[in-house]
């Protein structure tokens, strides 16, 4: 059986660990040459790339801050120079964040505008930078897949992380606008929203009791793993979703149904 992403080239931002690493491995496992982007975790990014190569895949690593447009342009240029094209971008990178229900950014009375701008820089500006950098290549190819990673907190703010959730909600609007403008060029833009995943840095401190509460609240009575989440991204990256654009898919075992 032919691989879903044979001869395709993918960039996964923030893919040195957690869900990003799982996405990079999933895309490579279906034949894509993958760029593992990182900001500080060079050793972890190298380990992800090494695992891909050991499994028979193709990978490179590249350090770049997605909030820096010049750094992103240089990264995309390096990918195209090495592989000759760029077909898939998964916008997964985000500013480091502490999911603490008692933090000041969980109340409208204490959240500061600086909290919002930091998250917008990482989420919305990051997507804008990668999209602009890749447009000349994707337009010339008449093909591209852009997949933005968001959160189901947009649909059900069980904890009011004002800054994080608002920035991620902004990605929904950006996704739809990009899909509308870029569709005539053969570029599809979609969004995948995750919930509590087993297991990422963000959920590493989550107790088993909390995992069970979330699982029992979902129709499938389970929490999604990073590998399962990556499969949804794989669908949007592959030709199986060529007729789909501008959509927001919540991958959380049915916990939210937007």
Can you describe this structure in just a few lines?
This protein is of the alpha/beta class and 258 residues long. Helices cover 43% and strands 16% of the residues.
Describe this protein with a few key phrases.
Rossmann fold, 7 strands, globular, alpha/beta, 258 residues, seven-stranded parallel β-sheet, 7 helices
Description of the molecule:
- With 258 residues, the chain is of the alpha/beta class.
- The protein has one domain: Rossmann fold (3-Layer(aba) Sandwich), CATH 3.40.50.720.
- Helix content is 43%, strand content 16%.
- The protein has 7 helices and 7 strands; from the N terminus they run E-H-E-H-E-H-E-H-E-H-E-H-H-E.
- Strands 3-2-1-4-5-6-7 form a 7-stranded parallel beta sheet, with helices on both faces.
- Strand 5 (144-151), helix 5 (162-182) and strand 6 form a beta-alpha-beta unit.
- Helix 1 crosses helix 7 and helix 3 runs parallel beside helix 4 (113-141).
- It is globular.
- Trace the largest sheet across and list its strands: 3-2-1-4-5-6-7
Helix/strand order, N-terminal first: EHEHEHEHEHEHHE
Give unreliable regions as ranges.
none
CATH architecture: 3-Layer(aba) Sandwich
Give the number of DSSP strands: 7
Specify the biggest β-sheet.
7 strands, parallel
Overall domain count: 1
Number of helices: 7
The termini sit apart by: 34 Å
Chart the SSEs and their pairings.
Elements: E1 9-12, H1 18-29, E2 33-38, H2 42-54, E3 58-63, H3 69-83, E4 88-91, H4 113-141, E5 144-151, H5 162-182, E6 187-194, H6 208-217, H7 226-237, E7 248-251
Parallel strand pairs: 1-2, 1-4, 2-3, 4-5, 5-6, 6-7
């Amino acid at each position: 059986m032919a691989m879903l992403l044979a001869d395709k080239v993918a960039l996964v931002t923030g893919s040195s660990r957690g869900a990003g690493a799982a996405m990079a491995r999933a895309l490579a496992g279906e034949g894509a040459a993958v760029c593992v982007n990182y900001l500080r975790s060079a050793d972890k990014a190298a380990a992800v790339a090494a695992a891909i190569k050991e499994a028979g895949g193709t990978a490179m690593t590249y350090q770049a801050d997605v909030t820096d447009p010049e750094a992103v342009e240089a990264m995309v240029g390096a990918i195209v120079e090495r592989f000759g094209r760029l077909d898939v971008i998964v916008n997964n990178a985000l500013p480091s964040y502490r999911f603490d229900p008692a933090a000041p950014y969980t109340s409208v009375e204490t959240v500061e505008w600086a909290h919002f701008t930091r998250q917008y820089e990482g989420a919305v500006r990051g997507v804008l930078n990668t999209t602009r950098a890749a447009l000349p290549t994707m337009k010339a190819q008449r093909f591209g897949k852009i997949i933005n990673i968001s959160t189901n907190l947009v649909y059900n703010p069980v904890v009011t992380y004002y800054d994080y959730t608002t920035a991620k909600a902004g990605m929904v609007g950006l996704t739809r606008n990009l899909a509308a403008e870029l569709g005539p060029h053969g570029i599809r833009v979609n969004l995948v929203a995750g919930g509590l995943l087993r297991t990422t840095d963000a959920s590493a401190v989550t107790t088993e009791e909390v995992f069970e509460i979330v699982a029992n609240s979902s129709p499938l009575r389970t929490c999604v793993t990073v590998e399962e989440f990556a499969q949804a991204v794989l669908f949007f990256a592959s030709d199986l979703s060529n007729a789909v654009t501008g959509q927001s898919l919540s991958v959380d075992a049915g916990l939210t149904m937007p």
